[in-house]
Amino acid sequence: MLLKSIAAGLVGSALLAGVAFAEPPAGVSESSLQGSTWRASKVVGVSVYNDNNEKIGSINDLLMDKSGNVKAAVIGVGGFLGMGSHLVAVSFDQIKFSSEPLPSATASNTSPPGANRPSSTTTTGSTATTGSAAPMSKPNPWYPDHAVFNATKDELTKMPEFKYSE
């Protein structure tokens, strides 16, 4: 009886060891995704500008089909701190994304265009959308700097309001 228990223990250990040393299932590596994909959680909140570099709103949500393809972006226009904004849904393929910061003509710049910038940067998890302190290349490839949609703020506010049906 003791011999059967020892044999069963050895067989069980061998089976468990085989599972433990098996190769992990094939997945997608971070390096293969970096630079070719964006995090949806970071795209929500990205500022949207028109072709004249005027801010017209920000992305509030992304709408996907059941296959996971993004079909539309919900843009919030107007409002204050997210309250009272007019939501419109626009086709996702009409939005162009840019990783390059917008050229800024505001007085908030701390240095004139073309001024030398520090060679090392530290990312803090937030993005600058005005280009006031952004280096030539974006340090974080997981989300765009801003989006461009060819419309004015007035045109967007005249569009039918998008409402979530419950």
Low-confidence stretches: 107-135
> What structural class do you assign from the helix and strand content?
alpha+beta
CATH topology of the domain at 36-103 and 130-158: SH3 type barrels
**CATH homologous superfamily placement of the domain at 36-103 and 130-158:** PRC-barrel domain
Second CATH tier, the architecture of the domain at 36-103 and 130-158: Roll
Overall pLDDT confidence: 73
> Count of DSSP helices?
4
Rg over CA atoms? 25 Å
The CATH first-level class of the domain at 36-103 and 130-158 comes to: Mainly Beta
**Biggest sheet: strand arrangement:** 4-3-2-1-6-5
- The coarse overall form would be elongated
Count of DSSP E strands?
Answer: 6
Textual characterization of the structure:
By secondary structure, the chain is an alpha+beta fold. It has a domain at 36-103 and 130-158: SH3 type barrels (Roll), CATH 2.30.30.240. Helices cover 20% and strands 20% of the residues. The protein is built from four helices and six strands. The chain has helices at residues 2-20, 30-33, 40-43, 153-158; strands spanning 47-49, 55-64, 70-77, 86-91, 96-98, 146-148. It has a six-stranded mixed sheet with strand order 4-3-2-1-6-5. The protein is elongated and about 85 Å long. The protein starts with a helix and ends in an 8-residue tail after the last helix. Residues 107-135 have low confidence and may be disordered.
